[in-house]
Design goal:
The protein is α/β, with parallel strands linked by helices and 411 residues long. Helices cover 39% and strands 17% of the residues. The chain has 2 domains: 131 residues, Aspartate Aminotransferase, domain 1, CATH 3.90.1150.10; 255 residues, Type I PLP-dependent aspartate aminotransferase-like (Major domain) (Aspartate Aminotransferase, domain 2), CATH 3.40.640. It binds pyridoxal-5'-phosphate.
Length: 411
């Protein structure tokens, strides 16, 4: 706990998440796969049901009452996201399907405009595939080069190398704020300042940051910032892309279709202004509404309180798991979010995952969509326990006991 943070009422919070009370394989569920997706509070579930029960209609097109109502709530959701990210203008918030689509949007618009043959796109060795593959595709298309900032043995970004790899050829930097596999928290504000000193814009993948810590896009000075609703206690199929206004005005549409136009003739289409210009077709209306509720929910608890509590959990779990013979934690950065990836000598991660599942404990096993990072550590995959604010020390104890049992059976 820091001086500013307050303890949070975990039993009350857990009651808000109906799924947490279910059983799996005859045991009370212990859900430790929050990095993959988070559970949803009742307010989010209710908001979605309320939309479909009371004011389901398409948005921005109808003059009738339901359409007006749905459009208003959808746009209020955008304003909630704007406030949550500290964006200066609500038009800077684009709704997408998720982090993956947000990154693809930037690669396909800004990337295609600015990256040419011989140029470079700078990413890091700890990126999720969704922050690698779109850039790789762009580089292949343009005959440009994907350059990768390495990580050290603790899983920290080599910030010394970052500075050296920023060059006149670098047209954009794309990096994660928090690694989904290692938990490493990158010093994005300082890195962005370094890139900006060379006039290079930066995209931040905030998929694993927004659910766990306060983010202010203006404070860190990000040019693009992406995150997913479903990892942030909201619905699947909704995500966000923040784009700095001065860049937004220069971007072409990402996809063509209805909703993004002012006028269409067979000769020419005049596009709507941002953000609608980037939201072709009927958007995920229920998703935006649910996401706004999820953000309201975490703001009511307070992200500083969440962050402080999750740090305690991380410390407790790190000590507990480190005491298990043969267990090695992959990712021991000084600045870490509540994610613990590990391997156990002589046992395949998949077998550990299955043995834990039999005990009602849900963890992730495999490469976590970071195959190049697995290669960096010369391992095929890890077991990953990723925590949220509704997890408890008792659940960490169950995980440790479950692992000890698994090791006895499998070793
Ligand atoms: N970036 C990071 C760091 C992630 O952890 C993930 C998902 O695990 C993604 C991007 C992709 O998110 P989504 O599948 O919601 O688009």
């Amino acid at each position: 706990m820091t001086a500013e943070s307050k303890p949070i009422d975990i039993p009350a919070i857990r009651r808000d998440f109906p799924l947490l009370s279910r059983e799996v394989n005859g045991r009370q569920l212990v859900y430790l796969d929050n990095g993959a997706t988070s559970q949803k509070p009742q307010t989010v579930i209710d908001a979605i049901a309320d939309y479909y029960s009371r004011y389901n209609a398409n948005i921005h097109r109808g003059v009738h009452a339901l359409s007006q109502e749905a459009s208003q709530v959808y746009e209020e959701a955008r304003a909630t996201v704007q406030k949550h990210l500290g964006a200066g203008n609500v038009n800077e918030i684009i709704f997408t399907r998720g982090t993956t689509e947000s990154i693809n949007l930037v690669a396909a618009t800004y990337g295609r405009m600015h990256v040419q043959a011989g140029d470079e796109v700078l990413i890091t060795a700890m990126e999720h595939h969704s922050n690698i593959v779109p850039w790789q595709m762009l580089c292949e298309e343009k005959n440009a080069k994907l350059v990768v900032v390495p990580v050290n043995d603790a899983g920290e970004l080599r910030t010394d190398e970052f500075g050296k790899l920023l060059s006149a050829k670098t047209k954009i930097v794309a990096l994660t704020q928090v690694s989904n596999t290692l938990g490493t928290v990158n010093p994005v504000k300082a890195l962005i300042a370094q890139a900006h000193a060379k006039n290079i814009p930066v995209l931040v993948d905030g998929a694993q940051a927004v659910p766990h810590m306060a983010v202010d896009v203006r404070d860190i000075d990000a040019d693009f910032y992406a995150f997913s609703g479903h990892k942030t206690f909201g619905p699947t199929g909704i995500g966000v892309l923040y784009v700095r206004e001065s860049i937004l005005e220069t971007l072409p549409p990402y996809q063509g279709g209805g909703g993004i136009i002012k006028t269409v003739t067979f000769e020419k289409t005049e596009y709507a202004d941002a953000p609608l210009k980037f939201e072709a077709g009927t958007p995920n209306i229920e998703g935006a509404i649910g996401l706004a509720k999820a953000l309201d929910y975490i703001n009511a608890i307070g992200l500083d309180n969440i962050h402080a509590y999750e740090n305690q959990l991380l410390e407790y779990a790190t000590a507990k798991l480190s005491a298990i013979a043969g267990l090695r934690i992959i990712g021991t950065a000084k600045e870490k979010a509540a994610v613990i990836s590990f391997v156990i000598e002589g046992i395949h991660p998949f077998d550990i995952g299955m043995a834990l599942d039999a005990q009602g404990i849900a963890v992730r096993t495999g490469h976590h969509c970071t195959q190049p990072l697995m290669d960096r550590f010369s391992i095929p995959g890890t077991v990953r326990a990723s925590f949220a604010f509704y997890n408890t020390k008792e659940e960490v104890d169950l995980l440790a006991a479950g692992l000890t049992k698994a090791v006895k059976i499998l070793a």
